[in-house]
Design goal:
seven-stranded mixed β-sheet, four-stranded mixed β-sheet, alpha/beta, 446 residues
């Protein structure tokens, strides 16, 4: 039986509510009692209260912080009109305006937008679209996807199939997932910013060449089976915060062109300035055929995602047997979410060029002391992403508590303690995050 309503929230939650990748009888969660700016007001399971900078931006989406006046206003104004209508046979201003904004800022000539209700669903749509595209081009036998190890694209079934099949989170479902074609994980790279603010990528060319040869060989071997190449550009997120060189994305673009495949880029985590470019594909000067976006799209206020395509792809779908993209979520193009997304994009367009590099410079400086810890194997920063990698799995509970005592909320995983903070963090906030991570890692892992 659940605890009575008068009991502490965390106790009522435990055993009642499933949390991501956590058992029902797992540790009691921290209760959020308020959120404003970049800070969370938390109550620990033992009753202790904490005010902490959210170094996670609520899993990378709350880039403008909490209770942002512009986003609050957009939500209130749309609520006063209508919060939701079906998108079948109807349209509305927030959706059309958002589609216009997205196609205007997208990398390459994107001309069509399909709205979905989560990032994972947008990947499902992109994969389904790729199959329809190949069928429309007279190649219905092309039913598989080429991707790379180390990737993560969501938790629904088609999306799971293009996640890493061995080291990913979905190895429990091998018999249920479509079997895709996996190239090796791209070699690691590092973006170096010189004192005069020039940037250059460093990678091992001796690793890049055999990787590219393996990708080309796999594509040639499976050319009659493949519909598309699917990849997170430059930064693999939940698969390990792995940074790889833009040259790899250019190889994948070339392979897609050579074998008449679509290039699908998953910009759900990397879009809207997170890596130091508005979209991570721009590091490689690559224009995709299909792009998935989500997370920061609404600034973390509401769940919304989108799939963008080129005119070439849209024309092929229109000429196909069904003439339509065969998907239609109930909450597709939710007006409230679209209205907030429009306001969020205005904020992103006005701030990301300055804020992401600023956050990155501060993370580079203040995470550096972690390099002196015996337990740390690597420190890497890309845009507004900072990663401390350990030589062993992170003691998540202890590191979380240690960081909270230092005023920082983190959510480590695997062997990584990382941050993707809100762009609106002040310099002092970023220093606090970095110092909190270094201090917590030192305290727990030495």
């Amino acid at each position: 039986m659940p605890e009575p309503p008068g009991s502490p929230l965390a106790a009522r939650d435990r055993g009642l509510v499933w949390h991501p990748y956590a058992p029902l009888d797992g540790p009691e969660p921290y209760a959020v009692e308020g959120a404003s700016g970049v800070r969370l007001s938390l109550r620990a399971p033992d009753g202790t209260r904490h005010e902490a900078v959210d170094a996670m931006a609520s899993w990378w989406c709350a880039v403008h912080g909490y209770r942002n006046p512009a986003l609050d206003s957009a939500a209130h104004e749309q609520l006063d009109r209508f919060s939701h209508v079906m998108f079948g046979g109807l349209t509305h201003e927030p959706a059309v305006s958002l589609a216009e904004r997205l196609t205007a800022i997208a990398p390459g000539p994107m001309t069509h937008v399909f709205f979905a209700d989560s990032g994972s669903v947008s990947v499902e749509v992109a994969l389904k679209l790729s199959l329809q595209y190949q069928a429309a081009r007279g190649r219905p036998g092309r039913q598989r996807f080429l991707t790379v190890r180390g990737g993560y694209h969501g938790d629904t079934f088609a999306a799971m199939s293009v996640c890493d099949p061995v080291d990913g989170m979905h190895s429990a479902f091998p018999g249920a997932l479509a079997r895709q074609v996996f190239a090796p994980r791209p070699p690691a790279a590092r973006l170096i910013t010189t004192p005069d603010c020039e940037q250059r990528w460093e990678t091992d060319v001796l690793e890049l060449q055999p990787w590219a040869a393996e990708v080309r060989s796999l594509a040639e071997t499976h050319r009659d089976e493949l519909a598309a190449v699917v990849v997170e550009p430059v930064l693999q997120g939940a698969g390990g915060m792995h940074v790889y060189p833009p040259e790899c994305l250019r190889v994948l673009r070339d392979v897609a062109d050579e074998h008449e495949l679509l290039l699908v880029v998953d910009e759900i985590a990397t879009g809207f300035g997170r890596t130091g470019r508005l979209f991570a594909s721009e590091w490689a000067d690559v224009a995709p055929d299909v792009m998935c976006i989500g997370k920061a799209l609404t600034g973390g206020y509401l769940s919304l995602a989108a799939v963008l395509t080129t005119r070439h792809v849209g024309d092929a779908i229109t000429r196909s047997q069904f003439r339509a993209l065969l998907h239609g979520p109930t909450f597709m193009a939710n007006p409230l979410a679209c209205a907030v997304a429009n306001a969020s994009l205005e904020l992103v367009e006005g701030s990301w060029k300055g804020d992401a590099p600023r956050v990155g410079r501060l993370l580079t400086e203040h995470l550096a002391p972690a390099g002196g810890l015996a337990c740390v194997t690597d420190i890497r920063v890309l845009g507004a992403v900072g990663v401390v990698q350990l030589a062993c799995p992170v003691d998540v509970g202890r590191v979380t508590r240690a960081a909270l005592r230092r005023g920082v909320w983190v959510r480590p995983f695997r062997d990584l303690v990382y941050t993707m903070p809100p762009y609106v963090c002040t310099d002092d906030d970023v220093r606090l995050i970095a110092d909190g991570i270094v201090g917590a890692v030192s305290e727990v892992h030495g």
